[in-house]
């Protein structure tokens, strides 16, 4: 019995050492003091039209064909809705592609049409912050809260979002305006961003947060851009009963 207890204690200690956890002394009866820094939560500071910018990364035809976590139609709908709502809310918008003329093709046409006059910056770097032109365009917005969306989620959206956090900025990723090539990549990307302090949300919630007040003159344009089918049905019910 004593030998079994010794072996169990030894194995437990070795396992905790592998995990980097120091075993507590066997005779201690006091709980360790709470580390307030490790449990600190960030104070909520809303997105606004004055503090946010939108960064759209690599929504290109070639990459879009490989997306497997959303249908092509749904992803296009979400990205276009995000872009149009951001434009209605007067957010600075930076659009970039990678290897447009050699590997991944052009930005899909519906997005280009939704953002007339917005330049699309092509680059060779994987992380947009590693390209001087794109980095300068983002810095020039003067915004401290950056909303990213990209294909693929775990690279084109995640890398610059994590870089932004490292620069002391607040980074958000619109996960449903981003897409990737497998469920494994999606889950791994989401976990990595959460570990790095990136704020994850969906595109409509981010835009409604910025709208803030349904009495704003932009409200009709924002909701029209977001294009929520269920909201249209509710409106149709109201119209039917109003006749």
Structural write-up:
The chain has 243 residues and is α/β, with parallel strands linked by helices. The chain has one domain (52-223): Rossmann fold, CATH 3.40.50.850. The protein has helices spanning 2-18, 61-64, 72-88, 109-114, 132-140, 153-166, 183-196, 203-211, 219-226, 229-242; strands at 52-57, 93-98, 120-123, 145-150, 170-174, 199-201. The chain has a six-stranded parallel beta sheet with strand order 3-2-1-4-5-6, with helices on both faces. α6 (153-166) runs parallel beside α7 (183-196) and α8 (203-211) runs antiparallel to α9 (219-226). It is globular.
Helix and strand layout, with pairings?
Layout: H1 2-18, E1 52-57, H2 61-64, H3 72-88, E2 93-98, H4 109-114, E3 120-123, H5 132-140, E4 145-150, H6 153-166, E5 170-174, H7 183-196, E6 199-201, H8 203-211, H9 219-226, H10 229-242
Parallel strand pairs: 1-2, 1-4, 2-3, 4-5, 5-6
Q: What descriptive keywords fit this protein?
A:
single chain, 243 residues, alpha/beta, Rossmann fold, six-stranded parallel beta sheet, 10 helices, globular, disordered N terminus
């Amino acid at each position: 019995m004593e030998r079994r207890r010794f072996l169990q204690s030894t194995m437990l200690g070795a396992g905790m050492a592998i995990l980097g956890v120091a075993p507590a002394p066997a005779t201690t009866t006091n709980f360790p003091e709470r580390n307030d820094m490790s449990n600190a939560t960030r104070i909520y500071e809303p997105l606004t039209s004055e503090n946010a910018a939108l960064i759209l990364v690599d929504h290109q035809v070639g990459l879009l064909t490989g997306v497997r976590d959303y249908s092509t139609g749904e992803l296009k709908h979400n990205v276009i809705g995000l872009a149009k709502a951001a434009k209605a809310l007067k957010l600075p918008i930076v659009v970039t592609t990678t290897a447009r003329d050699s590997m991944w093709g052009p930005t899909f046409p519906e997005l280009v049409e939704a953002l007339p006059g917005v330049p699309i910056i092509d680059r060779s770097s994987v992380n947009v912050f590693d390209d001087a032109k794109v980095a300068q365009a983002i810095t020039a917005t003067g915004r401290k809260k950056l909303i990213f969306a990209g294909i693929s989620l775990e690279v084109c959206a995640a890398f610059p979002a994590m870089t932004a956090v490292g620069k002391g900025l607040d980074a958000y990723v619109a996960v449903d305006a981003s897409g990737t090539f497998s469920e494994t990549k999606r889950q791994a990307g989401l976990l990595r961003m959460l570990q790095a302090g990136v704020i994850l949300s969906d595109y409509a919630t981010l835009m409604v947060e910025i709208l803030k007040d349904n009495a704003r003159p932009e409200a009709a344009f924002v909701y029209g851009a977001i294009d929520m089918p269920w909201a249209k049905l509710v409106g149709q019910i109201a119209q039917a009963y109003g006749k």
